[in-house]
Design brief:
Layout (H helix, E strand, L loop, with lengths): L13 H5 L8 E15 L11 E15 L3 E14 L9 E11 L3 E13 H4 L11 E15 L4 E16 L8 E12 L5 E12 L8 E13 L4 E14 L2 E16 L2 E13 L5 E16 L2 E12 L1 H4 L7 E14 L2 E13 L7 E13 L4 E4 L1
Antiparallel strand pairs: 1-2, 1-18, 1-19, 2-3, 3-4, 4-5, 5-6, 6-7, 7-8, 8-9, 9-10, 10-11, 11-12, 12-13, 13-14, 14-15, 15-16, 16-17, 17-18
Amino acid sequence: MKPAVYPAAIGCGCLLGAGIPIAHAAEWSVSPVFTLTGDYDSNRRIRLAAVGSESGSITADFLFQRATESSSFSLEPRYTWRRFSDATLGDGDDRSVTAALESHWERAKLNLSAQLWDQSTLLSEPLETGLIQANSHRLLEQVTGGWTWSQTERTDLVAQFLYSDVSYHGRFSAQLAGYRYPSGSIGERFKFSERGSVTASVFGSSLRSEGSPGASRETGLQVQTTYSFTQRVDVDASLGASSRTLAGVSSHGTDAAFSLTRHFELGNAALQYSRALVPYGTGFLVQRQQYTLTGLRQLTPYLNLSLSLLRVQNSVSATLPGVDRRSYVSAVLGLDWHPAEDWIVGTQMSALRTRALENDRATVHEWHSAVTVTWTPPKRARSR
């Protein structure tokens, strides 16, 4: 089915409930995580006049969970204190809280989640609007939900919805109007074998913003197929057609997504492609194509190597206001070492190439390196 979240906030909160173990009695637990990070960035604002800077951050994350035989609930507050060597970059702190609820019955399952996230534009906007400003923050308020009803052994009724309210505050937030974005889908899933299924659905979304002359809308139909060729090879593909109204102009278009995942004995690799309308902080729906290649390899029982390649291609309408770039290309290489059960030491190097906002013909590069130390104390739990 058409994803009910956009990339910037994809998966936030919805996965919390899915990972909670189901207990025979009510189980309460708390899982703290503390992270210390230091980094260097050659061009944090992604501008032609590159200025390098360092930063340090401390993150405290607490996951509170309650699980019973038929339901689970989680609450996760998180705070990151971040400071930069370049004082003009200002406040880089992040604050978020996420709540998730999962309930299941004999033939039905419900997932609900809510999130409040206040994040610096230095982190939220590089692959979104491109408007990276010091002392400016994006405030995301989001509610998501999913419902599955098993009608027969082979058919399910599935529904999803999302509501996002994005606003910006701070010293340099005038160009970012924010938006309100409800979306949803409902469809029928048919399991043609133990390995695969087909889902036909209808979907719709609407975006309203003070920065747009009118509401942007999309309604359409979509077909999704999932299939496991073997225990190690999975495919997920979807294709949709929609009617669109973007800033008062009506048109027709297509949405598509494809994912191929290959599992190995000591790792995995995944290739993904998506083309869809996504909400922008400037107050518009913009068609975006995204190509992603990721891989993970376990070098030793205590050492993992990861690689990620990403290309983002925005439609021309994204650049008409003159506030974003047509494309981004990035690569990330990471190495994680587990010296002890509760500790992870990670290093990461990344590179980004795009066009300059000041001159579309000029190329801008960014190089980033970071070292992260994560401590995960033992989870504390008790049953009642």
